[in-house]
Every structure is written in structure tokens, then in C-alpha cells.
Amino acid sequence: MPISPTAEGFRAAFRRPSLTLAEIMWRWIVGATAATLAVFGFFEYLDTLPVTNGELLFLRTRHPYLVGEAIAHILRGSLNRVAMGGLVAGLMLTVLWIITASVGRVATVSGLLDYFRRDVVRTEPAGGISDDDEREVASEVSTKEAFPALLRLSFLRAAVALAAIFGLLGAVIVAGFASPDAHPEPGLAFSLFLPLAGLICYLGWALNWLLSLAGMFAVRDDADTVSAIASAVALCRERTAAVFAVSTWTGLAHLVALVGAFTFASMPLGFAGVVPGRWVVAGMLLVTLAYFAFADWLYMARLAGYVCIVETPQALLAPLPPAPSLRPRPQVQTRIQTSIDRDERILSDVPNLAVEM
Predict the structure, then answer these.
(1) Please, what sign has the CA dihedral across residues 32, 103, 220, 312?
(2) pTM score
(3) For residue 275, is it within any domain?
């Protein structure tokens, strides 16, 4: 029977919740670290802002213009240090993400390979090797070269994200040339910025997806960075339909989850005037965390689908041949003459007529 990579991916995510938990752990460690740094950095930045008596006087006037000028003058006091601190924090968070992403990918892909080789794709033992020995050999995944290759792939993913940010800034600058201060044309600038931004986001997403897929081959084949990327490209070229099916179904599920998260997150806002504000914030935070957890589960299901594609022979991924038609074939009806031919001479009543002929 043919194997559906999409169904097997969701089944693997259900049967191996520990893999999803590992994915959640390394992702949320980075996210929690970034959020903690942002919150503490923001409050530390507020503590370092100098406020003079003149600025306090402007703030007490409650005039919009004077209050705006006072706030702008206050924020400019430590802006350089904030920029430098943000760059250092971003660099350290990037290093943390590269390391944790590499460790997490080794753990998750190794677990998925072990699951599919032992429980899904089974082969008959040959050459006198017992079934238990064959499964043990099949489940061994070498990660000697996988971790350095994953570090390089994660670094390339971070470089792609940085390049996309600079690309968007460049698109803003290019769009600004179409709307100079002397003759402003915001509509033309927006029409120019929108396709450039869309193209940059698509290319960044495609490259990030390809590098993420290459990480699976770095663990599976113990390959280097270039070989892993080449294997990912070969997989997309040779098994396009299966890869597209897994990506499409998991992407649709992710879209439904995103719409549902926005819907449920808007419900606590409707009680903002009835319940205390902290309960509203807690409800929105709970919905957000639930969405992130489900998104990580969907990512694990998609990764399991990709592993199923590369671990399953092509013949098992092929669709079933069409079933033969059950309609009866049309029968050729032959007419059998049951009447007597009166013109037949052998049946004539005249004696010796057939002999005379």
C-alpha cells in the first residue's frame, strides 16, 4: 500500500510528543531570553534617561507640542547607548539561536529517523541478519559531522534574515526616490515598494525554507553544508509532488491556527471594561502561548513528513493504479434463425429436386 507523507507526519507528531516538546524547549528558551532582555533593557533604559527641570515644566503644561518636544529631547539623551546595547544583544541572541537550533535539530531529526526506520518503513532481514539486529542498525544515526554542518546552516539562515532586513530598508529608499519632497507622490512610492517588499520576503522565505530542509540531510547523511543543500535541492526536484503536498497541508493548518488565534485573542479584549486589565493581558498571553505551541507541533509534523519522504522508497509513495471498471462489457448479440427457409431446395416436396440440381 502507498504511504502518505502528510498523514505519516501528523501521525508521528501524535505518537512522539517528546519530539514536539524538544522543539518547543529550544525555541522557547531563545524566545524567553529575548523577551527578558527586551523588558529589562527597556526599564534600564528608562532609568538612565536624564530629565531636567525645563523638561518637567514642558511635561506639566500638557500641551501636545511641548510634551512631544520634551519627550523627544529626553529620549535623545541615551539613544546612542541604546543602539549599541541593542546591537550587542541582537548579536548574542543570534549566537544563542544558532547553537540551540543546531542542537535541537540533531535531537528531533535523529528521533524521527529512528521512528520511521523502525516503525513505519520496515524491510525484510536478509543475509541471515535477524529482524532485531537490522532495526538496531537502521536506527543508528551518525552525528559526527552533523553538528558543525548545522551550525553553518543556521548561520546562513541568520545571514538570510539580516539580508532580508537590509533589502526591505533598500526598498524603502528606492521607493522614496519616486516621491521626492518637492513633488510628493505617496501612491507611486507605495506601488513601487509593495512588489519589491513582496519579492524580498518571498526570496528570504524560500532560502530559509531550503536551508532548514538541508538540516535534515546534514543529520541523516552526516553530510557537510554544501552536500546537504544539494540533497535538499535534489529532493525538491525529484519528489516535487510529495514535498508540495506536505508543505501545503501543514501550511493550511498553520493558517487556520493563526486565524483562530487572532479570533480567540480578540475575545479577552471584549471584556476589557468589565474585568481587570491583568486578566485581559493574562488571557491574551495564554492564547499566544497556545498558538506558539501548536505552531511548533505543526512544524514537527511537517518535518516528519519530509523525513517520511526521504526514508520511503519511491514505489511506496506512488499513487495506486486506477481500479478496473466494474461495468459489464457490452456483449455482441448474434441472431439465431429459428424459422424454416421455404426456398431451400432440400426441403422441397418435389421428389429428386436436389439430385437434379
Answers:
(1) negative
(2) 0.75
(3) yes
Instruction: Find the length of the chain.
Output: 357
Q: What is the pLDDT of residues 70-107, one digit of tens each?
A: 777 777 767 777 788 888 888 999 999 999 999 989 98
Determine the Cα–Cα distance for residues 299 and 22; give it in Å rounded to an integer: 12
Domain that holds residue 69: 5-315
Query: How many structural domains is the chain composed of?
Result: 1
Contact in structure between 106 and 146 (CB atoms under 8 Å): yes
Helices (H) and strands (E) in the chain, counts: 13, 0
Instruction: Please indicate, yes or no, if residue 343 is contained in any of the structural domains.
Output: no
Q: In this prediction, what percent of the chain has a pLDDT beyond 70?
A: 80
The sign of the torsion formed by the CA atoms of 27, 33, 35, 38 equals negative
φ and ψ of 181, to 5 deg: -65, -30
**Helix orientation angle between 79-115 and 277-311, rounded to the nearest 10 degrees:** 40
Q: Does a structural domain hold residue 212? A: yes
End-to-end CA distance of the chain: 73
- What is the full DSSP assignment across 144-162? TTHHHHHHHHHHHHHHHHH
At residue 165, what is the residue type? I
The pLDDT of residue 278: 82
